Amino acid sequence: MDDRPVPTSRKPWLPLWVTLALLLGLGALIVWQWQVFEQREREQSQQRFEQEAQDIGQRVKNRMHVYEMALRGVSGLMTGSDHVSLTEWDRALDQLQLQDRYPGTLALVWSRYLRAEQLDAFLAAQQSQGRADYQLSPVGAREHYLLIDYISPLDWRNRRVLGYDMLSEAVRSAAVEQAIDSGQAILSAPVTLRQEIEANVQGGAAVPAGVPAWHAAE
């Protein structure tokens, strides 16, 4: 029988350190892979977001161009004649099929520019034509006026804005001046519609769009 002692390793901790080193290396590799994956996912998400934003922006731009063409078509009707009657206006807007073809549109208006000395004669003419509900709003003496003359659809809500002076309110006035200066279609800052009343508020703000128009004589 061999009674010699069995030799033992002088470094019994070495396998443990090797195992720990492997685990640490594997953990570091997993963390690195996770960070790479997260970075790639963020980049792809950002690219998808930017692409979707561009697509939405282009769709909005295309839609606004369609609306602008409708505005310019109505403008051509109004400036191409010395006088467009309310009946002719209604017939033209019925053919336009505003709310079916241009979703989101609450109303289309034609506003008339007047100097202070023209106001009384214009209001008297509206009354003589049977437009008893046509009144200046807000009442007051000003140098210039831009009164809503026609509006479509002429329902009970929109009827309340006939005679409203768009130059009497800062946001609308700024948009009108921008359109006149540029000669281009413009969008104003969001506004609360004059049609709204506390008992029948449709909710949210509206963004009016408009194009400037002049008669040749003007």
From TrEMBL:
Source species: Pseudomonas anguilliseptica
User: In the record, what terms sit under GO molecular function?
Assistant: catalytic activity
Pfam families in the record? CHASE (PF03924)
User: Where is this gene product found?
Assistant: Membrane
| InterPro entries (alphabetical) | CHASE_dom, CHASE_sf
Keyword Glycoprotein assigned: no
Give residue ranges for domain CHASE.
138-218
**Keywords from the named record:** Membrane, Transmembrane, Transmembrane helix
Which named protein is this? CHASE domain-containing protein
